[in-house]
Every structure is written in C-alpha cells, then in structure tokens.
Amino acid sequence: MPRTVWSGAISFGLVTVPIHVVSAREDHSVRFHQVHLEDMSRVRVRKVCEIEDREVPNAEIGKGYQLTKEKIIPVLDEELREMPLPTAKAIEIEAFVPLESIDPIQIGDGYYLQPDGQVAAKPYTLLRKALERSSKVAIAKYAWSGRERLGLLRVRDNVIVLHAMHWADEIRDPAELKPENVKLAKDEIVEAEHLIDRLTRDDLEGEEFTDRYTEAVEALIEAKREHREPPTVEEPKAPGKVVDLMAALQESVSKAKASRGEDATVHEMPKKKAAAKKTAKKASARKTTAKNTTSSKKTAAKKTAKKTSAPKKRSA
After folding, report:
1. Which residues have a Cβ under 8 Å from the Cβ of 99 and sit 6 or more positions away?
2. C-alpha span between 214 and 32 (Å, rounded)
3. Which of 5, 141, 229, 230 has fewest C-beta within 10 Å?
4. Considering just the CA atoms, what is the radius of gyration of the chain in Å?
C-alpha cells in the first residue's frame, strides 16, 4: 500500500469527505548513488552552518525568506500550517467544467484519493457517481507544502483522482515560438493526414510503449555484475535534414503500413486541378465528337430511308 502524502477532506458544498491522498504513480527508474571513483566510497551531501562551520541536524533546520542581502526572516512550518486558509485542511471544490475546456499543459502529477474509513464511504461514492454522471471534472483549490494550489478531480476505475494543476499565470505564452510565413502545399497536408491515420490506435499497449532506457541500464548493471561485456546495440542514426517533405511523408506512410503488415505500396497522390481540368476538357470534346458523328449517321440513315420508301411514278 503506498504511503499517505496528505490527509484532509474534500469540501463539496456543505458535504465533507474525509480522505487520504496517495501517489498514483510509481517510479521504476534505476537509482544511482554518488561515489568516489578511485575507491568507490559513497559521496554524501552534508548540511553545514556557514557561521558555526559544523554539520546541522534536520531538527535544527527551518525555512527563511531572504528580505535583503543581510536580513533573512524565519518562517516556521507551524506558522504555515496555521495560516487562515480554508484550503489548508480541505480540498475545496470551486467549479465543475468539461474536461475538454482544460489545456493539458496545466495538468500535472496525479494522486488517488482514498476515503478515510466507513463514515467517508457514502459521501465519497456520492461525489464519484455525480462526477461520472455529469461527464465533468471538478476544479478545486488546496494548500500543500506552504502554497495554495489548483487541482482537477476526475474518476478513474471507480476512484477519485486529484491532478495538481498550474495556475494560468504560470504557463508561458508560446506566441513568440510560432514560425512565421510558412507555406504548405495541400498535398503535403493530405499526406500528413494519411500518416496520422496509419499511426492511429485505440490504446497504448505494446512493445513500443516500454521504457527501453531502464531495461538497457538494468542489462548494463547485470553484465558488469557478472564481469562480462555489456550488450551492444546499433547506434541510432542522427535525424537528417528533410529536403523533400513529400517524399519523407510518403516513405513514413509506407513504413507505418509495413509495420502493421499492410501493403506498403505508396498510394498515388490526387492529380492537380489543372490536369483534372484538361482531362475533363478532353473527355467533353470526345463526347461532343461522338455525339456529332452519331447525329450525322442518323441524318444520313433517314435520307436513305426516304429515298427507298418514295412511291414510283405511274406511266400513262
């Protein structure tokens, strides 16, 4: 069972739901220690007081705000906990909005909210079902680690999830990063859409969605433990400059098809409008000629029929 990182309550109007907060994520990264390479002894970071020149235990360490170069104002953890904020002890729901209205760049780490005992089970389930039926997410405020935060509540597998969010003024404006005066041919956009279609899937299950870096680090450590050469892999090619964008897109579509066992033949691009117009004109001219020829034949046939059917003059 993951450890509790915060305890409090969800405040939903006049309804209070006591909860424990646990991390929704696990870190499977390989951890390293800092060592002295000459003798492989551990290198540790020590907290030293600059004035007394001695190592200070955690019990003597607190927070301080540097007001000026010479003056620091001490701020105790107890003072931060006792600040008159309604969000200091509860996750206060402020509004409900469609999930699509939230820019994903604002959404951060996720935490599972666990009901605190049987008393909390009913209001917890009530909030969960209400969220599910509304097809909306809740936007809340809460205070952790000395600051008030914005959060998003949603439902995942019958459990309420809290996502930390960034405040709107914490998101940088990307306008200055946008390239200017870029022209794309319609065929290039169509080909890019073909590539998206070929790479579209319903889930993220599969070999390509595994952490290959961690696997490679583990293989390296295992090889060194057994005093053998680590496995070698082909060095990936550095991405080159795209000279022909259309050719690169068509080759990408072909590779995507091949990876799925489909026919890897590159499809033909639609003909340009000018060529289509010429073809239409030719077809129209052929139709007109054929029509005229048919009409002439019909006229000639009628004349012949009249001559044949004309009555002969009687002799006196």
Report:
1. 136, 137, 154
2. 12
3. 229
4. 37
Which residues lie across from 23 on neighbouring strands?
Answer: 111
Listed in sequence order, the DSSP H helices in 178-266 are 186-198, 212-225, 245-259
Pick the closest to residue 107 from 115, 97, 116, 117 (CA basis): 97
Q: What angle do CA 242, 247, 252 make, to 5 degrees?
A: 90
Distance in angstroms (rounded) separating the CA atoms of residues 283 and 220: 68
Report pLDDT digits (tens) over 198-247: 888 888 888 878 888 888 888 888 888 888 888 777 776 666 665 677 78
Instruction: Kindly list the distances between the CA atom of residue 12 and the CA atoms of 82, 205, 207, 234, 294, in Å, as whole numbers in the listed order.
Output: 22, 36, 42, 56, 83
Is 269:275 a contact under the CB 8 Å cutoff?
Answer: no
Predicted TM-score (pTM) of the model is 0.63
> What digits encode the pLDDT tens for the residues 18-76?
999 998 888 888 889 999 999 999 999 899 999 999 999 999 999 999 999 889 999 88
